[in-house]
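Local shape tokens:
==================
===
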Amino acid sequence: MAHIVLASSSPRRKELLQQLGLDFEIYSPDIDESVHENELVHHYVERLAREKAQTVLKLFPEAIVIAADTSLGRDGQMIGKPESKNHAFEIWKQLSGRWHDVFSGLCVATQQQMLS
């Protein structure tokens, strides 16, 4: 079986792969997660997933790399990651009882192919 690397430190993503019965290792890359000017949320999460996969693939060139990123949007605006516990509660209050969108980008990559 191919060597699989999960490019994420997310406990939920780890759990999902375990539920599939996959044998994998985890390597969470340190990448710049800054939002580009006028970048749409769905483009942002796909770009980050691809950048994570590319970074990890350089370290594990024979692996199948699975990378993902998730972000929230509301009223057409991206809601970034909380900067503190208080900021997280503030975001939660803003979202509570209101419609919002959850965007996830996924990338599966090898040296031969990258799908996102």
In short: The mean pLDDT is 92. Residues 29 and 109 are 15 Å apart (CA to CA). The first helix runs from residue 11 to 19. The chain has three helices and six strands.
